[in-house]
Amino acid sequence: MNQITKLFEGQELRIGGEESNPLFLLKDVCSILGLEQVAGVKRRLNKDVISNHPLQTAGGTQQASFVNEDGLYDVVLESRKPEAKKFRKWVTGEVIPSIRKHGGYLTPETVEQVLSDPDTLIRLATDLKEERLKRQQAELRIEQQQPKVRFAEAVETSDTSILIGQLAKLITQNGFHVGQNRLFKWLRENEFLGKSGSHYNEPTQYAMERGWFEVKERTINNPDGSVRITRTTKVTGKGQVYFINKFLSLKEVI
Question: Would you say 228 and 222 are in contact if contact means Cβ atoms under 8 Å apart?
Fold first, then answer.
């Protein structure tokens, strides 16, 4: 399938790949969903849903990151825009069926094959059935996650920040068993917390800019008259929502 472009509310979505496995330009998906840090989104996706392919641009051919259908749904779950659900339904209800209908099922060559070989019609019907089943399963996966997503949205309304150990318990209560130490390790490995030095286990600039953490300072007067300042990392309501949704979208628990 040649590269095609679809428009969602005036914004481009460039698509490549094959009719049976369309690939969506990650940069366009993030732009539509209001996710500014494409590199950060790419880093958090599973490797099996993302791949690099040539992209035709005004400046020539360039290598660009594309996500498959599963990856697209994972990116949708990261977005907080109200239009995210509408975008997902547009892709699954219009874009993908259109690609497969006009790109693979009803070409002149296919019609000729059906007329000359009845088995071709059986094969096409089977392919169409499998396509619909895959789309239904994807829709069901997202619908099953909605109750937990709504719970996470309720957390966002709270002004109370919590410790990372409390976040680990909250994630575990939602069906993903992870202890405090393993969560700290995961946050460091994924560059949400510092890995060494004076910034060890403190939020990175990237995480602070997005409002996922805050650092509470406390002044302690020592018996000898000296003053000691302690710094404690806490997860904001917005951060709790983000990490709960993140774990809901993970295919494997860390």
Answer: yes
pTM: 0.44
3-state secondary structure of 138: helix
The C-alpha atoms of residue 218 and residue 109 are separated, in whole angstroms, by 73
Interacting residues of 82 by C-beta distance below 8 A, sequence separation 6+: none
Q: Which residue has the tokens 């997860």?
A: 235
CA pseudo-torsion sign 165, 166, 171, 175? positive
DSSP strand pairing (162-163 vs 227-235) = antiparallel
What span, in angstroms and rounded, lies between the C-alpha atoms of 121 and 65? 35
Residue in this structure with the two tokens 């890995």, named with its chain if needed? 195
**Could you tell me the two tokens for 217?**
């300072």
Residue written as tokens 């992870």? Answer: 178
Q: Where are the alpha helices (DSSP H) in the chain?
A: 26-33, 38-44, 69-78, 83-90, 96-100, 108-116, 118-156, 164-173, 180-189, 205-209, 237-249
Q: φ and ψ at 12, to 5 degrees?
A: -75, 140
Say if residues 58 and 98 touch (Cβ distance below 8 Å).
no
Tell me the mean pLDDT per 10 residues along the chain, length 254.
Answer: 81 86 92 90 88 85 90 84 84 76 49 59 61 63 55 56 91 82 92 91 93 90 83 91 80 44
